Amino acid sequence: MNKKILVTSALPYANGYIHLGHCAGAYLPADLFVRYKRLIGDDVLYVCGSDEHGVAITIAAEKEGVTPQEIIDKYHYSNKEAFEKLGMSFDVYSRTSIPEHHEVAKEFFKHFLDKGYLQEEETEQFYDETANMFLPDRYVEGICPNCSAEHARGDQCDSCGAYYNQIELKNPISLISGKTPSLRKTTHWYFKFGEFQSFLEQYIESNADAWKDNVLQQTRSWLKQGLSNRAITRDLKWGVHLDEIEGMDKEKTKDKVLYVWFDAVLGYISATKKHFGDSDEWKDWWQSEDTEYYAFIGKDNIVFHTLIFPAMLHGRKDADNRYILPKNVPAHEFLNLESKKFSKSRNWSIDLKDFVEAHPEPDKIDALRYSLAMNFPETRDADFTWKDYQARNNNELASILGNFVNRLMTFLHKNFEGKVPQLSDKYIPLLDYWNTSKKGELEPNDKAVIDALKSGVEKVSENYEKFRFRDAITESMNIARAANKYFNDEEPWKSIKADKDQAAKTMFVCCQLVRSLSIVFAPIIPYSAAYIQSLLSEEITIGDDTLLTDIWSSAALALVNQGKEVRQPEIIFGRIEDEFVEAEKAKLGEKNAKVEEDKVEEITFDEFMKVKLKTATVVAAEPIKKSNKLLKLQVQIGEETRQIIAGISQHYSAEEIIGKTVVVVANLAPAKLMGEKSEGMLLAVNSDDGSLALVTPEKAVSSGQEVR
Question: Range of 516's domain?
Answer without folding.
Answer: 405-569
